[in-house]
Amino acid sequence: MTIAFATCSLLPGGSDDAHILIGALARLGADAEPAVWDADVDWSRHELVVIRSTWDYPGKRDRFVAWAESLPRVLNPAGIIRWNTDKRYLRDLAAAGVPVVPTLWDPDDVPSEWPEYVIKPAVSVGSADTARWGPGEEDAARAHLRSLRDTDRTAMVQPYLPAVDTAGETALVFCAGEYSHAARKARILTAGAGVEGPVRDDTTRGQVTPCTATDAELDLARRALAAVPGGEDLLYARVDMIPGPDGVPLIIELELTEPDLYLRHAPAAAEKLAKAMLAQV
Length: 281
Description:
The chain is an alpha+beta fold. About 30% of the residues lie in helices and about 25% in strands. The chain contains 8 helices and 13 strands. The protein has helices spanning about 15-25, 60-70, 80-85, 90-95, 140-150, 165, 215-225, 265-280; strands spanning about 1-5, 30-35, 50-55, 75, 105, 115-120, 130-135, 155-160, 170-175, 180-185, 210, 235-245, 250-255. Helix 1 crosses helix 8 (about 265-280). Mean pLDDT is about 95; it is low at about 195-200.
């Protein structure tokens, strides 16, 4: 049995998660290897393709989704990949009653109701073309909005939640529908950094540390996953959330395509995920 971990040409050897999973699968008697998703690969020789570090898809999303749909056996399933690679899925979650960070879609102007806000494209990974703006930066923020429109991308604008600077983002990881572990990520965006990318202003920027999920966070994560079309077929999921102004957690993203699952912070999770993969073939 051979499993392929789909990656991108920027990381042909696969991510840290993939290396950890390859070792876990080997201990269970299965072979696995990284493979670049848009390279000349004979995908039919793999019993299963698991999408992992395909981090270059935003500029070619249609081709990426078509590739996923062409595979005989892919996880997460291609239908979920199509739904999840455009952050407009947040509208579906909100419509299902799941608390999400308030979002304006393709607004005509920058918001006046929020002192600080984030502008980003609906199709993106790794905070690309994402920036935090505040008072006095309206002209630059408008230029950011225009740059997204000029390249035919859907712009989304969200309030910058102060809890990001203190509590950070909490990520809950699920394997085959079951909660596995949680991690906390420190803030990434810096005020006034612009669209060229956030300034590395301290050594804790983006730092990931293990944490324990609260009951409220677990409840929110389960509600979000229950609202996913075809969610019963999920191999993995990462539910990212931030405390709102009242301290109640809000969904910021639902990562079902190529998230870092922080396996290096939860060694037992790799074997759990490896067994879940083998159960799917």
